[in-house]
Design brief:
This protein has 76 residues and is mainly α. The chain has one domain (3-71). Helices cover 67% and strands 0% of the residues. It has helices spanning 3-11, 15-32, 37-41, 53-71.
Length: 76
């Protein structure tokens, strides 16, 4: 499945499922880098992710801020 097919599907998922996917991807990236994924994700998949809206909002805010910072023209 291509990214262009996958992204619209991901967008409609509930927040908890999106967080599970993020944790899964972090774990996969850690493994590819030779890092013990349990040290990165721990037992986070066992969280009650439906109660993690504050953490999700914080992450979304950080991502939005980073996006704005990266779009700003750079002056040397």
């Amino acid at each position: 499945m291509s990214t262009s097919q996958l992204l619209p599907t991901l967008q409609v998922l509930p927040r908890a499922d999106k967080l599970r996917i993020v944790l899964f991807l972090i774990s996969q990236l850690a493994q590819e880098e030779g890092i013990d994924s349990s040290s990165v994700t721990g037992n986070y998949l066992d969280w009650k992710l439906y109660d993690a809206s504050s953490a999700a909002n914080t992450l979304l805010n950080m991502l939005a801020e980073d996006k704005l910072n990266n779009q700003a023209p750079k002056h040397d």
